[in-house]
């Protein structure tokens, strides 16, 4: 245990008697540095070469702001939709036994595996004004493909498994007795679900939300096909970065990327804090 | 509230868990359902609560047929073995839950609910823990919160499923005494399930002994212990020894010798003799007694427990001897059971 300093200053919490703390912590730090920290600090360093005035000019550009708004807004909406319906899907998979349950269960993972471009093209074909679903929506005046709504649809598709797969295991652990206890105390089905079951699932739902949200913010492949990519209207931030790259405007690309990084980090940090708080309370 | 279980049968996927069970529980009584695992005691408790529906038969609360009512309408307090507290609620919120979910005018105002919760916490001796979460309580404290939560709805019947099953011996004994006190003070009709006979005999007004989905015997601790009415109850409650015997001319015979016990009303033929190991009369000579050689001997607290081999079949029975008794290995001991009972051989 040469890596755990025992001198003055702050100390590591005494790890368990099982050896390996030093080795595993050292490896984890090295690995994270290599995989995440170095590439990201390269990004910050590149954008720092811009200088404040220039950076601010890019950041406050109408097109940049709109792209960021669209990216974060649609990702947020899609994650919210996924929280509702993902939880519902998890509920059905956990609570009911029906023929084909295994197949439905496996289907949930498909968005993980499918190349995102394929998903994008398939969704565009369906939701285009002359597609199967788009045709039905057209008379109602709802346009999905080539609008921000289309982006939301694509992100809902991509994000669904994140919610289902985080909520499902926690839901499986719900103690039958807790529901029965609530019933003997006079709670009806609705009250049991809203007051007893869902509060217990909240930490898992928040995790699912943040994963789906983070994935949505960074999504590129499926969105560019369905979004129409009109600047100021349906152009997402990742696409704007690619456009800047194609213009050989590397500083601008890295600047937008750095802003996205900062925003995502702050949001995920907040989610994490909420998690820690709720865990501390409910044990 | 009186509870009457009338000819209830319960099957789980064609497998019968209870066969035609009937039981009358008086108002204010404290009843124990006692039996080994798989005897159907928990099933019976859950049927009374409405957590299961009987396959046949009815359950009455007073004169009302409760079998058609939902769990919510039955107004029973149920305490689960593993407490089943709501993890995300404070102790006070847990206790007040049953009042908070009521509708309309039957729901007391928030202030009243809070007052009631702390009153119940006083009753279960946990005053001042209103703001804690279940994760911050010990097992015994959680069990008491669960009881307070069940009592908050002023239930017609209080049902407890192995209430002390998950606690250590010390806490169990304490809570047992305490539950008796609470019962005497509040007077709820209470039914609890246990597999611990000591708990059942000590705590309950009447004990219901169950085995394999049937009620074997219902009675006070004295009835059950002193006059068991079946081989199962004899074997299950307290220590017992048994010997295969024969009844001829109203006399009990062991192999080819009479043992000095007469059973004028017993049917002739093969039977099994049951007696308590500690309830024996030691004899010197042996004309009309049971005699055997000591095969093993153990010191148990204040007495010595010896295993005797009886007759040519080398049947083993246990009896208790005073610690000073000179019986050692291989020596012969003669005795006659004090209180005993014959059951026809199966």
Describe it:
The complex is a heterodimer of chains A (about 280) and B (about 350). Chain A has helices at about 20-50, 50-60, 60-95, 100-110, 110-115, 115-125, 130-135, 150-170, 175-185, 190-220, 220-225, 235-245, 250-280. The two termini of chain A are about 30 Å apart. Chain A is built from 13 helices and no strands. With about 280 residues, chain A is an all-alpha fold. Residues about 1-5 of chain A have low confidence and may be disordered. With about 350 residues, chain B is α+β, with helices and mostly antiparallel strands. Chain B has 2 domains: about 1-235, P-loop containing nucleotide triphosphate hydrolases (Rossmann fold), CATH 3.40.50; about 240-340, OB fold (Dihydrolipoamide Acetyltransferase, E2P) (Beta Barrel), CATH 2.40.50.140. Helices cover about 25% and strands about 35% of the residues of chain B. A 6-stranded mixed β-sheet of chain B has the order 6-7-8-3-9-10, sandwiched between helices. In chain B, strands 13-12-11-14-20 form a 5-stranded antiparallel β-sheet. Chain B has a 5-stranded antiparallel β-sheet with strand order 15-19-16-17-18, with no helix packed on it. Chain B starts with a strand and ends with a strand. Chains A and B meet through helix 9 and helix 10 of A and helix 2, strand 6 and helix 5 of B.
């Amino acid at each position: 245990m040469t890596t755990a300093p025992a001198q003055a200053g702050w100390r590591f919490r005494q790890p368990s008697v099982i050896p390996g703390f030093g080795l595993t912590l050292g490896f984890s730090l090295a690995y994270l540095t290599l995989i995440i920290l170095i590439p990201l600090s390269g990004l910050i360093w590149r954008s720092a070469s811009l200088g404040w005035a220039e950076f601010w000019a890019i950041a406050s550009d109408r097109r940049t702001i709109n792209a960021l708004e669209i990216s974060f807004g649609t990702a947020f909406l899609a994650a919210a939709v996924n929280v509702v319906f993902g939880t519902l899907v998890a509920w059905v998979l956990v609570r009911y036994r029906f023929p084909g349950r295994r197949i439905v269960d496996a289907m949930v993972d498909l968005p993980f595996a499918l190349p995102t471009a394929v998903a994008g093209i398939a969704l565009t074909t369906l939701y285009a004004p002359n597609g199967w679903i788009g045709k039905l929506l057209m008379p109602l005046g709802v346009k999905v493909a080539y609008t921000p709504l289309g982006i939301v649809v694509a992100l809902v598709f991509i994000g669904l498994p994140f919610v289902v797969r985080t909520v499902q295991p926690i839901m499986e652990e719900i103690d039958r007795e807790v529901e029965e206890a609530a019933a003997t105390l006079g709670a009806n089905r609705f009250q049991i679900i809203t007051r007893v079951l869902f509060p217990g699932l909240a930490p898992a739902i928040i995790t699912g939300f943040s994963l789906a949200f983070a994935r949505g913010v960074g999504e590129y492949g499926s969105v560019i096909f369905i979004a129409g990519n009109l600047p100021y209207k349906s152009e997402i931030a990742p696409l704007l970065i690619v456009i800047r790259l194609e213009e050989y405007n590397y500083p601008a690309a890295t600047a937008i990327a750095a802003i996205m990084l900062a925003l995502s980090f702050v949001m995920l940090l907040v989610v994490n804090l909420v998690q820690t708080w709720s865990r501390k309370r409910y044990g | 509230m009186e509870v009457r279980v009338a000819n209830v049968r319960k099957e789980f996927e064609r497998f019968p868990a209870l066969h035609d069970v009937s039981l009358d529980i008086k108002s204010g009584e404290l009843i124990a359902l006692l039996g080994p695992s798989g005897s159907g005691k928990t099933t019976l408790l859950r049927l009374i609560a409405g957590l299961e529906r009987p396959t046949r038969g009815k359950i009455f609360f007073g004169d009302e047929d409760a079998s058609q009512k939902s769990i919510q309408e039955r107004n029973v307090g149920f305490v689960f073995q593993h407490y089943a507290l709501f993890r995300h609620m404070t102790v006070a919120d847990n206790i007040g839950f049953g009042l908070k979910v009521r509708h309309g005018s039957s729901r007391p105002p928030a202030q009243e609910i809070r007052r009631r919760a702390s009153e119940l916490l006083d009753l279960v001796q946990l005053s001042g823990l209103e703001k804690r979460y279940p994760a911050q309580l010990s097992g015994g404290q959680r069990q008491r919160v669960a009881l307070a939560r069940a009592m908050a709805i002023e239930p017609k019947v209080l049902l407890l499923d192995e209430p002390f099953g998950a606690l250590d011996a010390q806490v169990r004994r304490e809570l047992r005494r305490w539950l008796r006190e609470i019962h005497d003070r509040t007077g709820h009709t209470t039914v609890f399930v246990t597999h611990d006979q000591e708990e059942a005999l000590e705590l309950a007004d009447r004990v219901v002994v169950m085995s394999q989905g049937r009620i074997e015997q219902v009675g006070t601790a004295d009835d059950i212990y002193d006059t068991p009415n079946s081989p199962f109850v004899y074997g299950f409650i307290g220590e017992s020894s048994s010997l295969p015997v024969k009844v001829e001319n109203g006399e009990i015979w062991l192999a080819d010798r009479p043992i000095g016990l007469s059973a004028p009303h017993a049917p002739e033929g093969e039977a099994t003799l049951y007696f308590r190991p500690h309830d024996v009369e030691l004899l010197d000579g042996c004309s009309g007694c049971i005699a055997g050689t000591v095969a093993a001997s153990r010191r148990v607290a204040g007495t010595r427990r010896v295993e005797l081999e009886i007759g040519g079949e080398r049947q083993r029975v246990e009896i208790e001897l005073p610690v000073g008794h000179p019986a050692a290995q291989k020596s012969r001991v003669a005795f006659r059971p004090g209180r005993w009972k014959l059951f026809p051989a199966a």
